[in-house]
Design a protein that fits this description.
- By secondary structure, the protein is of the alpha+beta class.
- β4 and β5 form a beta hairpin.
- The longest helix is centred in the C-terminal third of the chain and has 25 residues.
- It is globular.
- It contains 13 helices and 15 strands.
């Protein structure tokens, strides 16, 4: 295995100093679950690993003033076990539940998952629909980047030389809002997603007469036919896709179809078709592009039903 120096600074200013000193040969690590794999595969050969672990304050997971603040060294396991996340940010809870194994989630961080900028990053679609913002500290000072502007290409992000992600900030969704994420994979065991679909819906009410139909997980078409009696209007909609293009992406044309419209079976079919058309999947060892498009149609509708179910239950 490639050899390297391992440095463990105690402050963020020390981190910036070390990155400036070692330049391109330095690589930041928090959990290190992605970086170590890339080193073993020979994909990167850093001379120095600069650890974020042990820096005071970066391991805080806090909910205050309507904002969920996830420090740079907060692990997936910490997020997974947070009742606040499960109650108000359920799409993110869905994602961390299915990321790797418990052993990996005990080490891997949310910030690291985003910084790797892989199209298959499980937390990216939920963070996109939840409107997350990424706090970055660099040589020029601190700035905040909307997560939708963070990804630039496979393995490429908006981070510049010497930049450090310090926090992921997620605003609490408005009332009568539900969110959900589905990781579609080839097997039930540990695997990377073949496709990731996240949906957020805000409705004009949480009073739904066909609650039993939604709860019993009836066929999606039956749910939306039953919902038509309730005159449910979608005030906000966000749809995000992973492994459906070079970067995690929003299906903006599909979202526009939903906003301000009454939920009907016909509308949801149109939304699902539009989302699939917006995607830019490619053939890979895990699945072909045509199959991914077909599954987008399926899971956009299914996750929309899950959102409605969560609105009923207040989560």
């Amino acid at each position: 295995m490639h050899t390297f120096d391992y440095l463990k600074p105690e402050t963020l200013q020390e981190v910036l100093h070390l990155l400036g000193r070692h330049g391109a040969s330095a690589r930041l690590v928090a959990g290190g679950t992605d970086v170590m794999v890339m080193i073993k595969k020979g994909e990167i050969s850093p001379g120095v690993l600069v650890s974020m672990r042990g820096i005071s304050g970066l391991d805080r997971l806090e909910f205050e003033d309507g904002i969920l603040r996830i420090g740079a060294t907060v692990t997936h396991r910490s997020v997974e076990r947070s009742e606040t996340v499960r109650r108000h940010f359920s799409a993110l809870a869905d994602a961390v539940d299915v990321l790797g194994t418990v052993q990996i989630r005990n080490v891997a961080t949310i910030a690291g998952n985003i910084c790797t900028a892989a199209p298959s990053a499980d937390t990216a679609p939920p963070l996109l629909v939840l409107g997350a913002r990424i706090k970055v500290l660099g040589p020029e000072g601190e700035r905040t980047i909307p997560v939708e502007d963070f990804f630039r290409g496979p393995g490429e992000s908006a981070l510049g030389s010497g930049d450090v992600v310090t926090e992921v900030c997620v605003p609490k969704p408005p009332p009568h809002t539900g969110s959900a994420y589905w990781k579609h994979k080839r097997r039930g065991a540990l695997d990377l997603p073949m496709l990731g679909v996240s949906v957020l819906l805000s409705l004009n009410t949480n009073r739904i007469s066909c609650e039993d139909t939604v709860r019993t997980r009836s066929p999606v078409s039956s749910v939306f036919r039953a919902l038509e009696k309730d005159e449910l209007v979608c005030s906000e909609a966000k749809i995000a896709l992973g492994v459906a293009g070079p970067i995690p992406m929003r299906a903006r044309n599909a979202e526009k179809l939903l906003r301000g419209r009454k939920l009907t079976e016909e509308l949801m079919e149109q939304v699902a078709e539009t989302a699939a058309a917006e995607a830019q999947p490619r053939d890979s060892i895990r699945g072909e592009a045509w199959y991914r498009r077909e599954m987008i149609k399926v899971f956009v509708k299914r996750m929309s039903v899950t959102c409605i179910e969560r609105i009923i239950h207040g989560r």
